[in-house]
Each structure stands twice: as C-alpha cells, then as structure tokens.
Design brief:
Layout: H1 4-14, H2 19-26, H3 30-37, H4 45-55, H5 59-62
Helix pairs in contact: 2-3
C-alpha cells in the first residue's frame, strides 16, 4: 500500500526532476512539494490536474496502489 505523497515522489524521481524544478513547473514552492510528498498536506484539485498534465498521466495512474 502506498500514499499519494509516495506516488508523487516516485513520479518525480522517475522523471528525474528535482523538487525545486517540479515546484517551478507547478508555480509553487519547493516547501509545498515537500509537504505533498511527506503527506503533510494534500494538493488541491487544481494542483492535481496540473500534476496529471505535467506527467501526462491519468488520475488512476496517480492513485495506483493507494487504499482508501
């Protein structure tokens, strides 16, 4: 079982992007990206849509392995 934060971190590493570079693409801060990846804060729906577009993935791929 994984979490949204773990999936986000995994996607970022697979795509060989630093938190800083990903934050720039998302128009947010590196601290916010870290909070998402550490499951301290969940990204808004608006940001989830941006994440899907940046990585060119589906919502199902983003939440793969997450048990609700």
């Amino acid at each position: 079982m994984s979490s949204l934060g773990e999936n986000l971190k995994s996607l970022r590493k697979i795509n060989n992007i630093s938190q800083k570079d990903f934050a720039a693409k998302m128009q947010t801060t590196q601290q916010r990206v870290s909070e998402w990846e550490c499951n301290k804060v969940e990204p808004s729906l608006y940001n989830i849509i941006k994440i899907l577009k940046i990585y060119n993935i589906t919502f199902e791929e983003l939440i793969d392995g997450i048990e609700f």
